[in-house]
Design a protein that fits this description.
about 625 residues; alpha/beta; 4-stranded parallel sheet; 3-stranded parallel sheet; 30 helices
Length: about 625
């Protein structure tokens, strides 16, 4: 008997799709189960799911009417309980109205009276988890899932948070989570598959509205685990054993065959250079078509979607994808007004204007009409260079001539070399220069801060990268990344402050990064203006009033910044120490209550939050800023 399986990702923001759920989708489909993936508003999921059940029930009673085309009205009635939407459903069009009305009201009450908790429909529910600071939304999702599954034993919770804090999750939800990677055990006794090695089901990503930043790529692993045991890292818990080789080509070929070609290859290995099979891994990557200069031409997405719809691969996903592609037709500048009108009319006549009213039959029926536009578009597309990204970074301490020469054989962009500690500077610079010597010119890294480091350490590492850009004529994008503990206090929020940091320092770094859009690239002069010419200037920026950092040039133009500097310089050593202890706490709501010293109070007066005044058209500061911007634009 086919099972109903629901895969849930909490509605947090993340860059990458849920790879674990994509593997589970493949597993359950191979077992012949009905699989649904969802990420978004949980109430909307319930309404749409109950609407679908209502449509099926109405169709059983009177199949002469296509109730699917009225799904949007049914959903509105179930959601709002307003009689106007009940009338718009058009139950009077059927001779069976006396039988239909009670059912529509039943599903309305089914939602509002939460009868779905008494009659759960899902045989299995799987919830993925991510960072520990997403605790609240994750627990909310698990508890929601607990009410939908027939048997709590068949609620599987896995992923990063589940593996790091299983006891905490069990205490909060009553569900014992799955820790680590997905193997054979945990679902079916007769399972012969190692789930972690199954190919990904990319179709589930088209079931939702959420768009992952790094979508449009092949996602995979060529190794598992890491040989290091860094104290700030979760990998030793998630993947405790290092596996040096996982075949790649068969999974990439399968993805191309079923879901279409992808432009880039994003590998999630945690320490690929530690593999003794690294030469073999490089050959696998090259055999998948990722060689320098290789280009990608996007396949006809509408053709692929309708083909997979015909094959019944994932009707829920491909109906939605076809609807989205048809929606995009409205944005095509190449279509004239008459063509747009014709397209709109065909969509309207066939119920293709709303995703709830789209049907598989209507999409297949109108395929020839719409396909002409997509064929024309995709036939004109030019190839785009394709790249490979070891997204979790590579270990500078493992670089040597052989490994770098192998890396240079694939179109890697960017090469992410970890630089989390100033102690690894020698190895880091050696790795970067060795890579440059082999022709690699695009680099990136995350710079961990707020751990055991000092603020000066962060500045030093950023400056090393900026100077290397100039020296080697390469591109290095650095992304300072604030450390969050994965266990104990503050693991469920973002409030952790490292032993050498304070709340003001953290806010200052974030304010500066806000201006640089979170990254530091080429340009010594730009870097020195943003972060200071040396550590002394950097440390001054860290204690500078936040709005002076956010609107740097404006407040310098007004003279406010110099006035603040003079006020700080006028303080005695004792007064400065008192002022700094207050500034470090970054709370200036009631300055008079913070100190009785008038000179310190004057310094603290600069820490007023000016953002409200700057955004208020009636304020004097708003007018001054507008005049300043106009004068700058004239230059």
């Amino acid at each position: 008997m086919n099972r109903n399986v629901l895969l849930l990702e909490p509605n947090y923001k993340n860059k990458f799709p849920p790879i674990g759920l994509m593997k589970l989708a493949t597993y359950f489909r191979m077992r012949g189960d009905n699989v649904v993936f969802y990420k978004g508003d949980l109430k909307e999921f319930l309404i749409n799911d109950i609407t679908s059940d209502c449509v099926n029930q109405l169709t059983k009673i009177d199949s002469s009417i296509n109730w699917k085309l009225r799904s949007d009205k049914i959903a509105s009635y179930i959601k709002t309980r307003r009689s106007q939407f009940l009338e718009q459903i058009g139950l009077s069009d059927s001779e069976s109205k006396p039988l239909l009305t009670p059912w529509v009201n039943y599903y309305k009450d089914y939602y509002h009276k939460k009868k779905y908790l008494q009659h759960p429909k899902w045989d299995w529910v799987c919830v993925t988890t991510l960072f520990t600071f997403y605790w609240d939304i994750t627990i909310e999702t698990i508890l929601f899932a607990k009410g939908l599954v027939k048997d709590p034993k068949h609620l599987m919770v896995g992923g990063v948070l589940a593996s790091i804090q299983p006891k905490e999750i069990e205490k909060a939800t009553g569900i014992k989570p799955h820790c680590g990677v997905l193997l054979k055990e945990g679902i079916d006794e007769d399972n012969d598959y190692i789930i972690d090695e199954l190919p990904l089901d990319y179709s589930i990503l088209d079931e939702i509205d959420y768009v992952y930043v790094d979508s449009g790529a092949f996602f995979s692993y060529t190794t598992r685990g890491c040989i290091r045991k860094c104290p700030f890292c979760a990998v030793p818990t998630l993947e405790p054993y290092f596996r040096s080789y996982i075949p790649l080509k068969e999974r990439i070929d399968r993805t191309r065959r079923i879901y279409g070609d992808q432009q880039n290859l994003l590998l999630m290995d945690n320490n690929v250079l530690a593999s003794v099979d690294f030469p073999h891994i490089i050959e696998d990557i090259k055999s998948c078509g990722f060689v320098p200069g290789a280009k990608y031409i996007e396949p006809n997405q509408y053709y692929l979607a309708v083909r997979n719809l015909r094959l019944g691969i994932n009707d829920r996903a491909y109906i939605r994808k076809c609807w989205k592609l048809l929606q995009d037709l409205n944005e095509w500048k190449s279509l004239n007004a008459d063509t747009r009108t014709k397209i709109f009319n065909v969509r309207k006549e066939n119920g293709l204007l709303h995703h709830l009213t789209c049907t598989k039959e209507a999409i297949i029926r109108t395929y020839l009409f719409f396909s002409q536009y997509f064929e024309k578009k995709y036939s004109k597309l030019k190839g785009r260079l394709r790249y490979i990204d070891f997204n979790q970074g590579v270990d500078a301490r493992l670089f040597n001539e052989e490994r770098v020469s192998l890396l240079a054989q694939i179109p890697i962009r960017p090469l992410r070399i970890a630089f989390d500690d100033v102690k690894t500077e020698t190895a880091y610079i050696k790795a970067l220069k060795l890579s440059h010597a082999h022709g690699i010119r695009d680099f990136s890294n995350y710079l961990l801060y707020n751990f055991k480091d000092y603020p000066e350490d962060l500045y030093y590492r950023m400056r090393v990268n900026v100077l290397l850009c100039e020296e080697l004529d390469v591109s290095i994008y650095s992304f300072p990344m604030k450390y969050h503990p994965i266990r104990d206090e503050h693991s469920h929020d973002r409030d952790y402050i490292g032993e050498h940091w304070n709340r003001k320092y953290i806010r200052a770094v974030q304010a500066i990064l806000n201006a640089t859009k979170g990254k530091i690239g080429r340009g010594v002069s730009f870097f020195e203006k943003a972060f200071g010419k040396d550590t002394k200037e950097f440390m001054e920026l860290l204690i500078m009033p936040e709005t002076f950092l956010l609107f740097r040039f404006f407040f310098e133009h007004l003279g406010y910044t110099d006035s603040w500097r003079k006020a700080m310089a006028s303080l005695s050593d004792t007064e400065r120490e008192e002022a700094l202890n207050i500034i470090y706490k970054n709370n200036f709501n009631d300055i008079n209550a913070l100190t009785e010293n008038e000179k310190v109070r004057y310094v603290l007066s600069f820490y007023k939050n000016y953002r409200g005044d700057i955004a208020d058209p009636s304020s004097e500061l708003y007018k001054m800023k507008k005049q300043y911007e106009e004068s700058v634009n004239k230059k």
